[in-house]
Amino acid sequence: MSIKKVIPRLPSGFKELLPSHQVIFEKFKRQISSTYESLGYIPLETSNLELTEVLLAKGGGETEKQVYSFTKGKNNLTLRYDLTVPLARYVSQNYSQLTFPFKRYQIQKVWRAEKAQKGRSREFYQCDVDILGNTSVVADADSVFAVYSALKSLNIPKFTISINNRKLVKEILSFLEVGEQSTEILRIIDKLSKIGKSSAIEQLNTLVKDREKSLKILDTFTLKGDFMKIESIIKECSLEGSEGATELQSLYNLLISMGIDPDYLEIDLSVVRGLDYYTSSVFETFIDIAVNYGSIASGGRYDDLVNYYSNQRLPGVGMSIGLTRLFEVLLELGTLPEVSAVSTRVLVCALSEEFNSLSAEILTKLRKENINSQVYLGKNLSLNKQLDYANKSKIPYVVILGEDEIKSGLVTIKNMESGEQKTINLEETISLLQS
Amino acid sequence: MSIKKVIPRLPSGFKELLPSHQVIFEKFKRQISSTYESLGYIPLETSNLELTEVLLAKGGGETEKQVYSFTKGKNNLTLRYDLTVPLARYVSQNYSQLTFPFKRYQIQKVWRAEKAQKGRSREFYQCDVDILGNTSVVADADSVFAVYSALKSLNIPKFTISINNRKLVKEILSFLEVGEQSTEILRIIDKLSKIGKSSAIEQLNTLVKDREKSLKILDTFTLKGDFMKIESIIKECSLEGSEGATELQSLYNLLISMGIDPDYLEIDLSVVRGLDYYTSSVFETFIDIAVNYGSIASGGRYDDLVNYYSNQRLPGVGMSIGLTRLFEVLLELGTLPEVSAVSTRVLVCALSEEFNSLSAEILTKLRKENINSQVYLGKNLSLNKQLDYANKSKIPYVVILGEDEIKSGLVTIKNMESGEQKTINLEETISLLQS
């Protein structure tokens, strides 16, 4: 009976990895979670589906257009579009059972029905750290340090974490007497890297109607570097000791004290982050040789996360690695390590079905010695088929069990890379595989 | 400005874990994946959303009623309800780029809009292993051994994996001359544990209209034990050397050769598994002291997984741990280990903000020695607040930095369990924490 075939495919904007990449992606996830854990963040997972009225309590804007929502039974449900709103909901819901400050990490997928384009997936991983219930700049440093440590542990190309402080930005704009227009100015500064300097000048000029002032704004907000580099601006604007300047300086110094390589950190006054809920510190991260791919990790401090759910006030700070995006950048750059999808060290090849139970016993002995091993599971037990499987699976050794080997009580072990092979007993095989 | 509050809650049938449980759940997931990997299974993740026409290519039945489907733009999308159909789709889609036999594991959530009831979540984790592109009983043994090893690694209460073979069941029914009614009989046998023996007898009698035969069927299919235990039935039915008997015997013997503790394995002729796509081996797993909670891991061999997507024929075998279900059972049994949600060994308590950079440096030194440590991030830096946080978070040690300590260049370290504390230098602190 022939069955009507359906073309196997995914919805547009959705992607999956082949095994050789999936295995690296898994390593990345594990590396990030173990780093976060070592720094005292506790794991959290939230439901992928939320009640729409709860998830979109804040409502409005771009978000609502981009979510996947639908009705099932009596409920309208939505797939989460970030990990921050579900965190707010979770914390409000379980408030009395949590310990504050609440430090959690969360590595899960989110969904956004964005216009399908290169580098944008509609389903992607975020790896968030947040600290809720605190106002100390030490927490800001803690979250940045967590992301820095996680990224360093992945051995990716050199990256730079840019930090800034929105209070300081506003203080500077007030000093320049353009405080009233700060929202519009911030919007122009935010897209500076996309639109370029000359276009930014034009837009600023249209806004403040003063070419010199526009130039001054641009000069100021394109300053980058260590704290020394922006100290002159702070003095020039008489902002020594201002809230924003103090916070930014403390954050910078704390991060250095915590051991961040200064080469990986800079203050960038143009980083303001589009999202309006950040209130002081803001962070963005770029791979130096791939700045045009966009930020791979970002975040900031927010005044209150839970005000739609609770009368508690919960200021906090957080940062998130866009792991799917990062992975795609590394793929494009060709800097992913070549690894074997299988962690098997040796394939045990029985050349006939009658040796099945013998090969099972050998397998058991190898595994007892913590040598990752498997038997060939195909139907055709020819040696060529089995060597081909080992080759394609990048398994470094095979152990062969044929008539001759069974008679002599020995096994033949073959190094798949060098082609070298010898016939020895099992103890010798084990010590060879352990070396 | 007061904001209208929305009650923070989840849709009915959805659950989340508190941190102290989440941390165990994460450990379980990691333990299972590392066991699967050590046995040569490669990791796979598929998209959570699928095109409905692709996912439901097979169509019909209960499945369609239980899925979460919706329209977005031009597409009708569905959240996956198991990991097997997406595997079939993935393998057909990427056929030429995979190595066969294809051994993969997959630990992801699935969604089913089942009637909300105790022990049934609408969102739950499955942890699958499958081997595609083979017909050897060695593969059946491989998948059962993978699940056995994974469950053993979790240190859960004693469980039993029940194996059976549908071919043998059919052979026995043919011998008893009720082969024509095998589907109905299998349905009765399948629910035996739910309906009880006497009700089963009634139903069988209604079907075969022969009380003695009904008793014989029931006697046969309630046999359980090692292969010896069912050998007499096989002889009685003249099924020595039949396909089903041979496969079941090989599977049992192979599993013992691979090192499965015989106490954890039994042949149970009543295990037939409801789903109709299994063709020979079938597996189910129960925790001995919680049989009524249902199977925590099951699977079997199927003839062809991809026939809706491809002309390739891909017979395979697989088994899946229902991790969410298992976790709920362990919670109910009260056998989950008590662990700290935080993996932090020491909390560094600065008693004043001016010691922030000093505490950052101490933190860095502790972390360099691989001692998981964090600083207290709350606003109120009173010692009591900080000790309370350490206590609630089950952090075993605190290091205190106050005026006295700074002056003397020493730190005070306190054992949170014994209450013992001493003032020593940092080197001594490090060796104390490492011991």
Walk me through the structure.
2 copies of one chain form a homodimer. Chain A has helices at 19-38, 52-55, 61-66, 84-93, 137-153, 166-175, 182-190, 192-195, 197-208, 211-221, 227-236, 243-257, 323-333, 356-368, 383-392, 403-408, 426-434; strands at 42-43, 49-51, 69-72, 75-79, 102-111, 123-132, 159-165, 224-225, 265-268, 278-287, 297-302, 316-321, 346-350, 373-375, 397-401, 411-415, 421-424. The mean pLDDT of chain A is 92. The two termini of chain A are 54 Å apart. Chain A is elongated, with a radius of gyration of 28 Å. Chain A is 41% helix and 21% strand. Chain A is α+β, with helices and mostly antiparallel strands. Chain A has a 9-stranded mixed sheet. A 5-stranded mixed sheet of chain A has the order 14-13-15-16-17, sandwiched between helices. Chain A is built from 17 helices and 17 strands. Chain A has 2 domains: 19-46 and 83-333, Bira Bifunctional Protein, Domain 2 (BirA Bifunctional Protein, domain 2, 2-Layer Sandwich), CATH 3.30.930.10; 346-434, Rossmann fold. In chain A, helix 14 links the parallel strand 13 and strand 14 (373-375). At the A-B interface, helix 1, strand 1, strand 2, strand 3 and strand 4 of A face helix 1, strand 1, strand 2, strand 3 and strand 4 of B.
